[in-house]
Write a structure and sequence with these properties.
Helix 2 packs antiparallel against helix 3. The protein is mainly alpha-helical and about 200 residues long. The protein has a single domain, classed as Arp2/3 complex 21 kDa subunit ARPC3 (Orthogonal Bundle). The chain starts with 8 loop residues before the first helix and ends with a helix.
């Protein structure tokens, strides 16, 4: 059984996989023109299974790579890194073992991605609307409904992020359920997802 908090070789192996999952998820959302992001699944999965630092690396590198084609993406790197910290913490508490707690966790991720993200967008784009997915809703909320620009931006990004994070955590939950026990036992936080964790620990020792 891998010790909690220890970054082992398998955890290092999962980092590039997590980065690839983030990239693929983001590209799927873009290609299908979905009002979603789907670019933090890899971050949450790696953090939940391997701990804070591997997840933070996945989140940071993912944003750096995306910044090559979209420079403003780099400003949102702190969000992906924050997802890793929250995911690792909730994982240690066993939240992702329950479908209901997993769904509730989406609120925490959405507050970061939508709430804090809206503030970053507001600042990066010179106290105006951004150029991303949220403009589909933020501009009509301002021009048609008459909401102030920042409030329209905040509501739009938060709304999108709630839906995005619900789908994201459900994908993560499915991944956790699908990973074999033998694989989980070798990961720093894998024991959390093993039903007879104490028994496995004894056998490993």
């Amino acid at each position: 059984m891998a010790k909690q908090g220890k970054v082992n070789k398998l955890a290092l192996f999962l980092i590039p996989i997590g980065i690839a999952v983030n990239f693929i998820g983001g590209q799927i959302a873009i290609l299908l023109k979905l009002p979603l992001y789907l670019d933090s699944i890899g971050t949450i999965v790696v953090a939940a299974l391997c701990g804070y630092w591997p997840g933070i690396v996945v989140g940071l590198v993912s944003n750096i790579l995306n910044a090559i084609s979209s420079p403003t993406t780099l400003f949102y790197a702190p969000l992906n890194m924050a997802f890793a910290i929250v995911a690792a913490f909730l994982s240690q508490k066993g939240w992702f073992k329950s479908i209901w707690k997993t769904l509730v966790s989406s609120i925490f991720f959405a507050l970061i991605g939508g709430g804090v993200g809206a503030c970053i967008t507001w600042i990066v784009y010179g106290f105006d609307f951004g150029s991303g997915t949220s403009t589909i809703f933020s501009i009509p909320l301002h021009e048609v409904v008459g909401l102030p620009k920042f409030l329209a931006q905040f509501i739009a990004e938060s709304g999108i992020d709630v839906l995005d994070k619900v789908i994201t955590v459900l994908c993560c939950f499915s991944i956790f359920k699908a990973i074999p026990t033998r694989f989980l036992s070798k990961l720093p936080l894998g024991h959390v997802y093993i039903k007879d964790a104490d028994k496995v620990l004894e056998e490993a020792e």
